[in-house]
Amino acid sequence: MSKLDFAALLCSRLCHDLVSPVGAISNGIEILQEEHDAAMREQVIDLLQKSAQQTSNKLQFFRLAFGAAGGFSSRLDMREVQKALSVFLEGTRVTLDWKASVADAPKGIVKLILNLCLVASETLIRGGVMEVRIDPVGDNAIDIVVFVSGERFIMQEAVRAALVGEVNEEEVEPRSAPAWLASTTAKELGGIISVSSEDGTRHRLAVQVRSSGD
User: Fold this and answer.
1) Which of 82, 85, 98 is nearest to 58 (CA)?
2) Whole-structure pTM value
């Protein structure tokens, strides 16, 4: 798959995630132009504020997960990464439990973490808890483990295959593009993502990579 083709997949995925809140803003503005009832206008304004905030939150997240924020070789403060993930999950039924014992990480590792978390969060279709653990292993490696637990866990086979590197490039689609990005980034950093279940209700996505991020 060419870089251009993969960029197109990520753009499709980005547009899919943004079309709902942006559409709500457009509809809200249209209603405001015609609505004169004060109570109704107040409700519409509240909707506009929430939709605008949701759009901003998603853009902050995708800027780090898909984009080149900070440059490809720079290191990012993990507090910024946590914040981007936290605001992305606002308004969802997924609760974040963040446990990072590293202060910063190279951009490549940040991309891996955020895309792994994106995939993990989407498996909790009825909500639940996503626990993220990021720990150094000696001086040269980092363990990234994401636990998800909830009433119902569903990972589409196409997403799972892309995540663990068991899919052909031509089979990757917008839905599985973040999983493919996580998988290919992990491989570049010397790791392979694994997916396992502990007891049927708690699931584990994990990878160990070089801490240099080169």
Assistant:
1) 85
2) 0.90
